């Protein structure tokens, strides 16, 4: 007899995990909806022609491919075998599992462009699959949770992303976190003013290590990457800036004074903060990180990254503005801005901080228990009325010893049991026992509804 | 430039479809939870060893298989090529997409049997995939929505299935439907008393056609299937029974008087109805269908099927009791009872009947609009307060003509727009316009919250 197992890097979610995941997801969904985003879903499978070439060579390797149905080898010849897997792929597989939610969203926008009203605000919460090496905290199936607005350049969207992130964290009870913001144009400007235009990529990779390896080592790395020594020296004021948050915009204006695009980036950030202020909102949790880059190649404007402080997991959310979401499918000019919550990471953070509210895993509120057939009949007669009053109630289905019934309640985290004995039947009441405290009181249906409703 | 398309038999769900699907799913989830069921999720991929051999030869054909990562052809030889796809499958694929939710659930129970408390009540709402020929109403990716209790024989579970189905239909607004119930033991009993023990399978397939082809043709078919003529004649009282619903149990007791198992089936149904009565519930919508079979091989006790009357789609839900969910994985004695809602079919039924409530697709309640930069600033100042009051509000993000802003609201089904003009700024009010009626009134923030909250 086979012993069943799970594929590597995949997980089951049992009742408690699911309840906690739903607590996170419901919080995020409510927030997206409050800000006028609508949910869409796309299929798990996409044509490989939609997916390949969008995530780089490594991404193509990590795509899960689906074997064609029926006689999948019929087009494969002995010669193909010799040419190897990559050359033969198109003959055995036409479909793959989605790798992220962005490419399917771009496809959706292109295919539905005539029906959609722009600006189009959508959110999407679905699993994605990557044939990555499984390791702690990295799975082959995991949920992404994206919100994007496409078809507008308005910086109101950037400001609202900050507000949505803050609302989600507030409702999840995560207090110590930082929303790092930057702008691609600032990065472009920095590389311009130091005389290394176009090299913001390697620049940011190196500077990102500042905290870990120090300025000496970062300079060495930059020179190894082909930066001129005097360019590197021009970074000194940036690296040594210690004027605090409030002065950063002024510092950048001066540092980037010779770069038109750099100043534009500063202006966009300034305007985003101004919109927040017009909305009566401050800059709590917001930190301007002048070298934040995050998958730089995608972004053309704002860049976001959210870090929870003092936990082992780092970034739990990120995003930014892009100029051309759908260009790869032949539709130009669809710009947008979006961000993504890492649900699995938020889960791990909340677990590490032990802040899942007890109510978030509350299932059944009340288990009706009984000693004998008469009590069972009485319990049945109450059950439908309790549920009609909105109380999540169960009856222990088998006639069993009271201890077994109480065990069931306690193992399932049911907070209350209602005991139906002869006295209760006579009085038309129920003996309500709170398992945690052992407190017991006699209540009629109306009182019970008031207490648990 | 490639023109993107969707894989055959798969679908995108846009905002309106998703809102309607969520209306159905939320109704079902609320009901499951009210009855004490907890949600679980299992991975999209299962090991092929878990999936194959569970759905018959046809099912094995219809499994979507996932190509092994990396050099998937490395174990395939020229000889394998000659032996064909089926013989080579294990060398190129180890995983498949789930085909239903029952086999993954059985695997879950086996793998977690030491942590679970029985009876275990779970529900599961996830997509499944079948490489079926796509056609109207049949998709390659579709959602299933299952609830099961395992680890108890109590008929309370059967009674509660009927109650859950009725609650879901009531909340969806579907009024004309029938919950057909039967019991496998009754079918076994019928084949016994007519002298064709063990042949309930072909018996039911043939009798199921009674309405379509009439008793003459059914008799012919039964004889073709090897039933003795005098066995077939013994079915006459069953086929010609016209005593109405109330008399069916008495009729069956008499018809099955010589079959112990048959009488047991009648007793189980009787007890299920008795439990409903003890719960203060009637038999509304319930019909005893003495030959209902539905995938007979799985079921050992109660059998359910729900049909919506007077629509082109037939069955939208079904289920039953089974003796041995997990036996195939080596864990004996886990009996249970469960049922499944066909979400796609419920969607189609509600669309055909035009009964989706308008509120079910309600997204944004209020769009703030403005004429100029001053109005835009004023609108921004209101926006966060409106949302803090729980009102789903948006601002049109770009400074655009009023007509464009109103168009956006109307195309997105936003019922109210709030106009922020000079007068409103001076009065600290908003001109609230209801798009459907054209009615307009001047309200302050408090009045607005009261009206839309």
UniProtKB/TrEMBL annotation, chains A, B:
GO BP term, pick one: histidyl-tRNA aminoacylation
Reactions this protein catalyses: tRNA(His) + L-histidine + ATP = L-histidyl-tRNA(His) + AMP + diphosphate + H(+)
Enzyme class: ligase
A Pfam match: tRNA-synt_His
InterPro entries: aa-tRNA-synth_II, aa-tRNA-synth_II/BPL/LPL, Anticodon-bd, Anticodon-bd_dom_sf, His-tRNA-ligase, HisRS-like_core, HisRS/HisZ, HisRS_anticodon
Keywords (A to Z) from UniProt: Aminoacyl-tRNA synthetase, ATP-binding, Cytoplasm, Ligase, Nucleotide-binding, Protein biosynthesis
Domain Aminoacyl-transfer RNA synthetases class-II family profile: 1-346
Cellular component, GO annotation: cytoplasm
Subcellular location, record wording: Cytoplasm
GO molecular function, one term: ATP binding
Enzyme Commission no: 6.1.1.21
Source organism superkingdom: Bacteria
Subunit structure and binding partners: Homodimer.
Family note: Belongs to the class-II aminoacyl-tRNA synthetase family.
Protein name: Histidine--tRNA ligase
Organism, as annotated: Algoriphagus zhangzhouensis
